[in-house]
Amino acid sequence: MRQIFLDTETTGLSAAQGDRIVEIGLVEMVDRRLTGRTLHHYLNPGRSSHPDALRVHGLDDAFLADKPPFVRVADELIAFVAQAEIVIHNAEFDLGFLDAELARIGRGRFAEHVARVVDSLLLARETYPGKGNSLDALCRRLEVDNSGRERHGALLDAGLLAEVYLRMTRGQGSLVIDAAQSGEAAHAAAAVDLRAFRLPVIVADDDERAAHEAALAELDKASGGKTAWRLLEA
Fold first, then answer.
1. Is 152 a catalytic residue?
2. Quick check: pTM over 0.85?
3. How high is the pLDDT of residue 91?
């Protein structure tokens, strides 16, 4: 399966009010392994960034003055994402800007050019209900090194999202491929007769059971009643 992890930086928060994309970064993965193919562009938005947005990405007017407008990279972008599954963190935000940019040049909506879009923020909220699920929070929780993220950058964030997604979806623990593994298991586990072992059973006391039930109730409330154990009990 071909997946593209995508991120943008913008002049502000509202595409409907004329804010524009100033940076776009995409990272390709095939069958849950990075291919090394990326697409990255800084863009001249034709307007200044809001001070709050500038503090986030640091891409000022002087830096962006000689960069291409979106129309000059549109064909390359469409070709890169064609028929792939696109993973975006808080997809509604980025799609709003991509659709606005494409509409200006008569190229339809972004979703028309891809197989489907997956919102990793919605996936994170289902996986970790009631927790912080920003990209930084997920990096901390899943032990993804984001120490180089002093400011937001589209290509950097797309790469971080790729590793977060792998770990969040129970994929391989790291994007680094062990050269010693050539597709065959390195070692076969020795067979062990578990009947030779007697495992102690420690029964929870009343206080421990009460604490456990309280924790389950909190998770159940945070997930809106979607916790699996409650459904099984029902």
1. yes
2. no
3. 98
